[in-house]
Amino acid sequence: MSHSLVTVICLCYNHEQFVQEAVESVWHQNYSSLQLIIVDDASLDNSVSVIKRVIKNRPEVSFITNENNQGSCRSFNQALKVAQGDFIIDLSADDVLLPDRVKRGVEVLELAGLEYGVQFSDADIISKEGSHLYYHSKKFPHHTIPQGDIYKNLIERYFICSPTMMFRKEVMAFMGGYDEALAFEDFDFWIRSSRKYKYYYVPEVLVKRRMLSTSMSRAQFTKSNAQRWSTLNVCRKIKELNRTSEEMQALRHRLQYEVFLSLRMMDVRLAYEFLKLGWQK
Known about the structure:
The chain has helices at 19-27, 47-54, 72-80, 101-112, 136-139, 151-156, 169-175, 186-194, 216-219, 226-241, 245-264, 268-279, and strands at residues 6-12, 34-40, 62-65, 87-92, 96-97, 116-126, 132-135, 166-168, 198-210. By secondary structure, the chain is an alpha/beta fold. It has two domains: 6-219, Spore Coat Polysaccharide Biosynthesis Protein SpsA, Chain A (Alpha-Beta Complex); 226-279, no CATH class. Strands 1, 2, 3, 4, 5, 6, 7, 8 and 9 form a nine-stranded mixed beta sheet that branches. Helix 1 (19-27) packs parallel to helix 2, helix 10 runs parallel beside helix 12 and helix 11 packs antiparallel against helix 12 (268-279). The protein is globular and about 60 Å long.
């Protein structure tokens, strides 16, 4: 069995109800070579006290507490500076790793070779209380999920459940970490990393993703949300990264969708910015 070190970076913000389960899911892995770094991003609830209690007899765990809220991108980059693993997992404190998650990720990426930088999988979507709602593959069937060079596919549509990703540390070195100017990280990570690295899909449920009414994925579908403006900035990056006419066509389709979505939310200014990007040579 491989002994490659895997660093799990657990980001917590107002997750006192869930953080213990998230942290313990790291310790329940069928894989022993692990580094756990927890970052509390100035939670307003009792998260810090819960974390301190859970890790009381775990001196090997690194715990970073922010006095002021830094946002997920900057908080992750804080932890990345002390990450020692060959592979990295970005774990939200309201999600749960299943016991084989780390083992399967390491197996797949080491077998696939260095050109594969990211591995992702199916997920069990659960409620706030932890009850099963559906599997990610119910909406995104296994046979529809591309792998390998998926840069163009990622421009066109969503299909990756973000919490299921594991990636080589060198991917982050190549990218310089998450872009701290953005309100969310996954779309930008997919685009910039897939320009250089291939992705490997494992059609197994390896993670539980908790759906909350306060989740960022839901907040992005509101007018003037910072995440929507971040999406615009990522689309600008795509335009600079594109190399082929097929990729430019994929971007045009993406921009049309974003214009429609912005208008549906009555966000005329944002719709205009997406339109303008499409017009620019």
